[in-house]
Amino acid sequence: MTRLTPLLDHNERFARDHTPVPLGLPAARLVLVTCLDHRIDPAALLGLRPGDAPVIRNAGGRVTDTVIHDVSYLAFLAESLLGATGPLFEVAVLHHTQCGTGFLADPAFLHRAARATGVAETVLGASEVADPERTAREDAERLLASPLVPATVSVSAHVHDIETGRVRTVTDARYPRRAAPTGPRPQ
Fold it and tell me: What pLDDT score was predicted for residue 165?
């Protein structure tokens, strides 16, 4: 028995009426990057349903190299396998207030966390979200500046207020400032 065992009853009810969603472009033409915080439920928060949007989650919802690689791969899939052209999708960076990674802004806490986990301070510090408006904007800019994110992918930034439940936009959707690729994408 595991802690998941009691939840498997819910899965049985889910599976009875389940209709699989075919592989294709996300219906909302959106990819969401957000925090793994258990208080954040992107589906409930934004009214998403299966097939609407891939959700990439990590500590702080930060744009890491791995997130950039995931976005690049999703764009490749949309272009190559699905034949999508023109604007592919928007990446919405969604940070939130009261993020547990905000504690990492305290150098003493960061040092203790690094010693306890074996993760380098620079790596842990990169996930810090003490000022979600600032970090959401920074992460949107990081995506826009990456040569791995094609010019056919737009990027926006948002902040979810844990107290009110509201999401507000801090950076409207923009495309990278470079020409859209005309030939095959670099390997």
Answer: 97
